[in-house]
């Protein structure tokens, strides 16, 4: 059975060819690298090319994500097997697939930012990071007021990504379009690549804001009236 | 009655066409995004196309402000109704209109920066942030010496923008070309778009400086002679 | 008497025309703006077009230094009078001229950076900032080892630039290619524009480093063996 | 005896000409400058053109590393003598050569970043900086799990680079593709230029992360469950 071809990677009309999705994903990766969120060969990025059967477009493991050519991307099936292109799929593909399947995500963006790494270790003992009372939260799908509190899950890091994905699974339905892996970084997602990018920018903003809040409140509490 | 066409958005000679103003506003938005001041779909930006009757050019709600095409901008009348272009006007249009009317502003720039968000929460209890003794203050229209003290108003955030605008109204005449909404961000304005940009850069500089001052003075007070 | 034409603004062979110096200065200003060191209309920048009689090329007062066209620069004589171009000379021209005359500078770059502003206020009571034991100091002309201590003068800000220049004068001969004005920013200079740019980058690096040192040492002193 | 021509500077097939290696090295230097890691004339960068006899391609001493033309690079032999091109070899060539010979490095990148300078002084008394439990460590060749601890050596700075290189020599075999010189900066290396760049990005990330960890943990320890 041939699955229906649905490319949620791009916002435009359905694209039968892979080229626009590949170009959109490599441009997204270059922009993310430009912000310092995937130095070295850190991070990984995928988008759904087809839902039935599932087909993910992603960067191969171990390459620099800031300068990948569209032709160098690989296609991976729902079991994480490379079905097109040369290169190995990252071990982290397991978590990308779990997010795509459980959250109906069309794109998953995994970054290694300074604030994400810092707060993922800081919040591990509590198991989550609380983000609240900020207008920026409204940039996350489904949130309509700043007067809310969001719990970003924090999981311990694990080189066994199947085990890590199993632990992540029960947290995904309530996760605010993202989760943190301790000492590792952020996963953000969305139903399309542009929406995943928006969620990534929002969550990275909130993480950077959170650690500045922690510093400032600790050393210089706000004055009273 | 046809209103007179006065495009205060650009510094040059009067422009009968909308194109130069639209290009100037989208370039300003792209520059603001490049500085990290409107991540996600945060922020909004407008300039006056015509004073009588009032006509505002602005970005539609919910789009990424860093990559708006000039043709995608909308025109909004003095009641906040979209009169040209497709897309919804942001709820924040109410505050843009209040500022334009009360401050004779030709452009209003609303950002979500790290320092603006941080200090808007920090200064809420006091209701203002005091900025003083800095040469950069002279970049704000009407200030001619560093030896002055400026109070940047801080208002509580509110999803009801009509109510928020009513609370802002009495503060606008004394506001130093800007005000903060707590947990939300900065509004800056000016009689033309270039002057609003200058005020935005100045106020964002002063906010970034203010939180560094708070940190440094708290942990390492200056040495005496 | 016609003075000899010596353009120390550029490193290359003597340039009879003003164009290369104007282009070099506007490119330097755009690069400085790109680093966030002259937001708003902050900062000013000059280079010597001719020594005898003195002729300075500089940006007019009140313009945005990041986007000045070479043709928009003005020429100023040794008394600070505009002798060519349209626009007003900044009041700060007095200090530019004092530095050029006393330090044989070929270019003077005056910035408003975060670290410069912060530490200029922090160091005012002592009257200087001590920079020491850093390899980067060797980028300043005349310094050949990191094992040295340099005192960067800090003067109180003053809207009377003649008075400020008189107070600066006795400090200039010992100043390490730069000085700070409190709550205002840094002046850096060099015998040519490229050397002034090098000194500016070095001093801005050292200022940013200094405030990070102050923060880190105050809250987390180095571990002993 | 003519040595074999092996250009480990570039990942591609062997290049008989110097041009691709020179272009790759100048592009790397421009990118490093763009990140603020070699301001002024700070830093130095080399790659191996030929192993037997050893031939290093590098920037001459005292130039701005962000804007070197490929033709302006010099070639240096295994004793640090310039054998091609005009300009002086930096005194730091001695340490580049020691690293190339002892670590089989194909490229050596020496930066002056804020975090590297700060932590090199902070860690000097202990003689090393401990980096641990971070996924980013896996970007360093030979490391396969985040659950590890890496000791980045820290040496005292010395203007006598022969003496400094002798002190570095016994530390190089265990060094994690890099070492710090106190108050000076980072040396990072790799078997090829792209791998050296990857190690540089990883180590700079880890240094920036380390000082943020020190700040945050000191003033706002993580909450317990």
Provide a descriptive summary of the structure in words.
Chain A is an alpha+beta fold and 225 residues long. Chain A is 32% helix and 20% strand. In chain A, strands 4-3-2-1-5-9-8-7-6 form a nine-stranded mixed sheet, with helices on both faces. In chain A, helix 2 packs parallel to helix 4 and helix 3 packs across helix 5. Chain A is globular. Chains in contact: A-B, A-D, B-C, C-D. At the A-D interface, helix 3 and helix 5 of A face helix 5 of D.
Summarize the model shown.
4 copies of one chain form a homotetramer. By secondary structure, chain A is an alpha+beta fold.
- Largest interface in this structure: A-B, 28 and 28 residues
Give the ordered list of helices and strands of chain A. Answer: HEEEEHEHEEHEEH
Protein structure class of chain A? alpha+beta
Total beta strand runs of chain A: 9
* CA-based shape of chain A: globular
Mean pLDDT of chain A: 92
The separation of the N and C termini of chain A measures 69 Å
Measured by DSSP, the beta-strand proportion of chain A falls in 15-25%
> Low-confidence parts of chain A, pLDDT < 50 over ≥5 residues?
1-8, 10-16
| Major β-sheet annotation of chain A | 9 strands, mixed
Oligomeric organization of the protein chains: homotetramer
Q: Radius of gyration of chain A in whole Å, from Cα?
A: 18 Å
Question: So how many helices of chain A?
Answer: 5
Helix content, binned percent of chain A: 25-40%
Question: Strand order, biggest sheet of chain A?
Answer: 4-3-2-1-5-9-8-7-6
């Amino acid at each position: 059975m041939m699955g229906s071809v649905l490319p949620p990677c791009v916002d435009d009309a359905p694209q039968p060819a892979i080229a626009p999705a590949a170009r959109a994903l490599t441009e997204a990766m270059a922009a993310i690298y430009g912000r310092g969120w995937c130095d070295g060969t850190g991070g990984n990025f995928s988008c759904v090319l087809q839902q039935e059967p599932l087909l993910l477009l992603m960067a191969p493991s171990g390459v620099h994500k800031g300068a990948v050519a569209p032709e160098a991307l690989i296609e991976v099936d729902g079991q994480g097997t490379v079905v097109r292109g040369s290169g190995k799929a990252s071990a982290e593909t397991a978590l990308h697939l779990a997010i795509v399947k459980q959250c109906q995500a069309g794109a998953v963006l995994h970054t290694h930012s300074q604030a994400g790494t810092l707060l993922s270790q800081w919040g591990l003992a509590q198991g989550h990071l609380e983000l609240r009372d900020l207008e920026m939260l409204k940039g996350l799908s489904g949130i309509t007021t700043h007067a809310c509190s969001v719990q970003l899950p924090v999981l311990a890091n694990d080189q066994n990504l199947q085990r890590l994905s199993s632990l992540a699974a029960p947290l995904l339905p309530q996760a605010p379009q993202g989760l943190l892996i301790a000492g590792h970084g952020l996963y953000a997602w969305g139903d399309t690549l542009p929406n995943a990018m928006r969620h990534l920018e929002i969550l990275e903003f909130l993480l950077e804001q959170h650690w500045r809040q922690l510093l400032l409140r600790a050393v210089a509490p706000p004055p009273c009236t």
